């Protein structure tokens, strides 16, 4: 399978995940959005040397992956492009921050510790976002944004960018397939036609995006986002879910969970 | 009152190359008009003008007495359902069901009404079984049926259909013909499927090179072998 068609398949797989009838998928999108945002805010606000504290925040993705029937290996495969970037952020800390500090009784460079916490913060934030995306469709996220009274144009942009990525991929696949059918036995695309292929791709997907926007407005779409999603209703469980996680984040943020648990056994 | 009134319409995508040349045409409520003509004759261009997708024309175009211009488009589009020639341009939601529900939901109908209309449109076009399938994984004909369903669910007063029978197997094609005949709406159907035009339209407009060459009863125009052949068309299969 070509890279492009596997990218398209990936999008479909994620959309399949979004459509599953799981408890996580049934939670109100606004609750999941709020929960994810609050989690990330708590996470990044940790002291850069509080490695155990940051580690304890890993409970949130861990629990959801386990109870939400999500595959951690699929997730890692999908986010493998962004993970190295996330890890790169802290890579120079050990060089610049050479002050010694104690970690589990060992003397290590403070920069090394802050690198680890930065990486963990990045990875956990990516995991939390993945959980949101894997359980909530783009329409539902837009619906949540519209409840928050975000400007309609912003929500339209969100929806269109999402569609544009799909269109661009689909158009790219069509063009490269058409090319390879008429250039059999050739590996890749000859550099002489790169320019015209790339231009075509851009023009065609822009044209398509135009048509799609026309089709949306022909069916009554306007940027005042009146999109109402079927079957979404507030349930008591939604509020409970939000309350429990928010309390948990606040607790983890303010109390050293691992030390408390550890002291119970000592 | 005429539902669609076009007077002295001239249009060009690029300056100096007129695609539509001085077209005048009017359609009464409930009428079914077939729009035929060679490739590039300007059929799709004309339909797009009616829904305001091709702004910047000369002449006057009114739909339901309202002139087609920027400010009136939302009102006009509420009356019209437009099926694109290319289904990939029409469909944009993630699943068939979502796409069919998109129009009614935007017009602020209640959720139960939205669901009822969606299910009805899916059942009519015979695609209830693919309701939850992602759009990107449909076959060409399934996409066409889904496109038609997205418009049926809106129950428009006017239907503009660009090649509705393209890519359909004979059974689905026949089904679409039956649906079109059942609908009370005003219809303009652009197609090369002259047999379908014969089955659905009492009146036919023949376009050639951006002009209206002939306008009259379908029975007369689609039986005129010389006229059709002059315009790159052939007699409908059943008359050959
Ligand atoms: N976006 C565009 N920009 C420039 N020219 C265009 C555009 N769309 C169509 N044309 C030109 O306008 C002319 C009429 O096109 P149109 O699509 O209306 O033809 P048609 O009668 O629908 O043909 P077909 O039977 O092939 O669908 C063609 O010569 C075409 O090349
Ligand atoms: Mg056309």
Q: How would a textbook summarize the main sheet of chain B?
A: 6 strands, mixed
Q: How far do the termini of chain B sit from each other?
A: 38 Å
Please give the most extensive interface between any two protein chains, plus how many residues each contributes. A-B, 27 and 36 residues
Strand content of chain B: 25-35%
Radius of gyration of chain B: 18 Å
Distance between the termini of chain A: 56 Å
- Tell me the quaternary state: heterodimer
**Estimated helix fraction of chain A:** over 70%
What's the order of the H and E elements of chain A?
A: HHHHHHHHEEHHHHHH
- Overall, the morphology of chain B is globular
What does this structure look like?
The complex is a heterodimer of chains A (266) and B (240). Chain A is mostly helical. Helices cover 72% and strands 3% of the residues of chain A. Chain A has a domain at 20-136 and 234-266. In chain A, a hairpin with a 2-residue loop joins strand 1 and strand 2 (106-109). In chain A, helix 1 packs across helix 11. Chain A is globular. The mean pLDDT of chain A is 81. Chain B contains ten helices and ten strands. In chain B, the strands form two sheets. In chain B, strands 6-7-8-3-9-10 form a six-stranded mixed beta sheet, sandwiched between helices. A four-stranded antiparallel beta sheet of chain B has the order 2-1-4-5, with helices on one face. In chain B, a hairpin with a 5-residue loop joins strand 1 and strand 2. The radius of gyration of chain B is 18 Å and the shape is globular. Chain A binds chain B through residues 8, 12, 15-16, 19, 137-139, 163, 166, 170, 208, 211-212, 214-222, 226-228, 230, and chain B through 51, 53, 73-74, 77-78, 80-82, 84, 86, 88-95, 98, 101-103, 105-108, 111, 114-115, 132, 134, 136-137, 150, 154. The complex binds adenosine-5'-triphosphate and magnesium ion. Adenosine-5'-triphosphate binds next to helix 1 of chain B.
